[in-house]
Write a structure and sequence with these properties.
about 5% strand, disordered N terminus, about 270 residues, 3-stranded mixed sheet, mainly alpha, single chain, globular, disordered C terminus, DUF247_pln, 2 domains
């Protein structure tokens, strides 16, 4: 029997926007997440090849969603040698955000004076001579927004450009919530990134500076609103910035802190 094709016409812009909002809700919301094994079971029951088809289509859609948000470019290592089945759809999005591995593990620091406890603001780093460079996801070697690195002898902080829209805060907060609840299973790298951005861009002047350097792109209308959203992003979370197991940016933060302290001493004694 030949399959019957039904022409439903071209959906309107409003219907497409509504459909996208529904899909985003299903993926983004921390509450009411559908366990991934339930989706697998639905696939098994709907068609002979349903399980594999459903998994492949959902996985590909999640990748397209993250690319559309400009949060990542390359596909993550979630396939062999050790396939990982996500717990739910939010976890699937989380699996697409993995920082590039460091060339060498951060050196352990037992000296309390080496502890930084928090990032300085972007304007403070700029005052200390640190330059900022925003990177597009299209640039060679870029994988996802977590790939923050120091170049130029520690003088230039390269940060993947964060395109901010109304969905950004909800997605980041829910990914952080996922890590807060399941740190041993999923890690805390999104939390580390959010702490980094929230403390770097917590004032209007910081947002203005990072916008000029193409680290942040937003359409909120004013920098005050963006700064407030960053300042509120990580409120109430548990996170140890001096623990390299918890904070993949710990070494970067330590290097910038030493540079800032050195600059302050030169300014005072210059």
């Amino acid at each position: 029997m030949r399959p019957v094709t039904v022409d439903v016409g071209v959906p309107s812009a409003n219907s497409r926007a509504e459909a996208l909002a529904v899909v985003r809700d299903v993926f983004y919301l921390a509450e009411n997440q559908i366990p991934f094994f339930v989706l697998q079971k639905i696939g098994e029951l709907t068609a002979l090849d349903g399980k594999d088809r459903v998994i492949n289509e959902i996985t590909e859609y999640a990748l397209d969603l993250m690319r559309g948000q400009k949060y990542k470019e390359a596909a993550p290592a979630i396939m062999p040698p050790q396939p990982t089945v996500p717990g739910n759809l939010l976890h699937l999005l989380h699996m697409h955000l993995k920082p590039a591995p460091l060339s060498a593990p951060p050196a352990a620091t037992g000296n309390d004076s080496d502890q930084v406890r928090r990032w300085r603001s972007a304007t403070e780093y700029s005052f200390a001579g640190v330059k900022f460079k925003g990177l597009s996801m299209k640039e060679k070697g870029m994988r996802c927004i977590l790939d923050v690195k120091l170049n130029g002898g520690g003088g230039t902080l390269e940060v993947p450009r964060l395109d901010i829209d109304n969905e950004t805060w909800r997605l980041l907060r829910n990914l952080v919530e996922l890590e807060q609840r399941n740190r041993e299973a999923v890690g805390s790298h999104v939390t580390a990134y959010c702490v980094f951005m929230s403390q770097m861009a917590c004032t209007t002047k910081d947002v203005e500076l990072l916008s000029k350097r193409d680290v942040i792109v937003h359409g909120h209308g004013n920098n005050d609103e963006v700064a407030k959203c960053f300042a509120d992003l990580c409120k109430g979370i548990q996170f140890d910035p001096d623990d390299p197991e918890c904070n993949y940016l710990q070494e970067t933060c330590s290097i910038l802190e030493k540079r800032s302290r050195s600059s302050s001493r030169k300014w005072m004694h210059g």
